[in-house]
Amino acid sequence: MQPKYDVIIIGGGPAGATAAFFLGESGRKVLVLEKETLPRYKPCGGAVSAHVLEQFPFSFEQVNQTRVSTISYAYGEKTVTIPFADPSLRLFMRGDFDAFLLNHAQVEIRQATRIAGVKESDEKVIVETVEREQFESNYLIGADGANSVTARALGLRRQKTMAGGIEIEASVPEETLRRYSNKPLLIVGELSFGYIWIFPKRDHLSVGIGGLHPRPGELQSVLERVMRRFGILIDGQTRHGHPIPMYNQREPLGTKRSLLVGDAAGLVDPVTGEGIRYAIKSGRMAAEAILEGNLEKYSDRVDHSIGRSHRAANAFFSIFYKHQKIGFDFGLRNPALSNGAAEMLADRIGYGRLLFRIARSIPRFILTKKIALEERASIFP
Questions:
Q1: What is the DSSP secondary-structure string of 260-289?
Q2: According to the model, what pLDDT value does residue 317 have?
Q3: How far, in Å, CA of 127 to CA of 8, rounded?
Q4: Mean pLDDT in runs of 10 for the chain (381 residues)?
Q5: Do the Cβ atoms of 308 and 270 come closer than 8 Å?
Q6: Which CATH superfamily is domain 161-244 in?
Q7: Domain 5-68+85-159+246-313 - what CATH class?
Q8: Distance from the first to the final alpha carbon of the chain
Q9: What pTM does this model have?
Q10: Long-range CB contacts (< 8 A, 24+ apart) of 227-230?
């Protein structure tokens, strides 16, 4: 007896929803099992390039919160604002974004369904819920986040590294909201390995902090102190903690009949914590691997398309956070970094090419700064 479904997808976030969309478009019978009821809150800055979303045959403007034309950085008392040559960055509320994408998939969706376990045989995959329901399929995609039940059940991602994050959807006065309108702010120099963000949304600010190996209570105390400095009061506002899976090595991301995608596969950017682009990318790659009947090559394809760039990112991560002042002066203040990062967010280049562009631009950047300083000095007697 054949399984009822061609593919079961565990998780309805951007990775699972993307896989569901492309599998549904190809006529496969797909079941998505989502533990929450969508739209649900998800801690996330929500940054996505409009270019990444062009692969879908529909517009996301209905759920877009903010169009970004510039980005600001802060280190101590220093701040700098860089305009984007290509202002394609968009900011979304993840709950709305995920639900909107999943609603476009021609698949069966069961919400408020928690998974108890997964069993795989040579012929099929069986998924059991906590209510003792069982579903069978030919293939399985695990898109169930950083603490993936699928990964544990299949013996994958055993040596994973987790960073920690806290986010607050901060209600602020209109004057404060206008100050950050269309201008995200990234703050460095406050943590040994991590940063703080202030992302403008339609009617509030998403503020948060993420760090690797923080001391107990460090994220909370640093976020409170820095937000006070920037005039954002977060006392009494709801805080959402979340794990951030860090990519640190090449590893198997699938079995004979199952694949991991997005955060479940640990594909978060190790420098910025960006995850939506890699969720969408891996979700589509998983769908294509199943449609081709070639799951064996999926891990290699992910490593080639995402992993190589992430390994270069790990080198950048180590250098930047050990020398954050230098990184601010010659990296974040350098327009080549922000415009290169915008191309990377559009999935046009990886960290290797980004680092090359930054290195190549530094001599000209230093000379330009020197000329600007000399011109400024010449104004005064």
A1: E-GGGGT-B-TTT---HHHHHHHHHHHHHH
A2: 80
A3: 8
A4: 86 97 97 95 91 97 93 92 92 95 97 95 94 95 95 90 90 92 92 93 94 90 95 92 82 95 93 92 98 95 93 84 90 91 93 90 78 41 37
A5: no
A6: D-Amino Acid Oxidase, subunit A, domain 2 (3.30.9.10)
A7: alpha beta
A8: 90
A9: 0.92
A10: 227/170, 230/185, 230/187, 230/198
The pair of three-digit structure tokens given for residue 296, joined into one six-digit string: 């064996």
| Distance in angstroms (rounded) separating the CA atoms of residues 237 and 233 | 9
Please tell me the predicted confidence (pLDDT) of residue 2: 60
Residue 59: CB atoms within 10 A of its CB come to 11
Going from N- to C-terminal start, the domains of the chain cover 5-68+85-159+246-313, 161-244, 324-378
Q: Tell me which residue has tokens 């998924």.
A: 127
Spatial distance between the Cα atoms of 55 and 76, rounded to a whole number of angstroms = 40
How far apart are the C-alpha atoms of 267 and 298, rounded to whole Å? 14
The one-letter code for the residue type at 135 is F
Is the fold of 5-68+85-159+246-313 the same as that of 161-244?
A: no
| Token representation of residue 39 | 């739209």
- Three-state DSSP class for residue 246: strand
C-alpha distances in angstroms, 352 versus 227, 287, 313, 356? Answer: 33, 27, 8, 6
**Cα–Cα distance measured from residue 319 to residue 24, given in angstroms and rounded to the nearest whole number:** 43
Q: Around 124, how many Cα atoms within 13 Å sit in the side-chain half-sphere?
A: 13
Furthest CA-CA distance within the chain: 90
Six token digits for residue 330: 């010659």
**Confidence at residue 1, expressed as pLDDT on a 0 to 100 scale:** 52
Short-list 13, 11, 15, 14, CA closest to 32: 11
Spatial neighbors of 14 by CB under 8 A, at least 6 apart, are: 97, 98, 101, 262, 276, 279, 280, 283
How many Cβ atoms are within 10 Å of 152's Cβ, its own excluded?
Answer: 15
How many angstroms separate the CA atoms of 142 and 16, rounded?
8
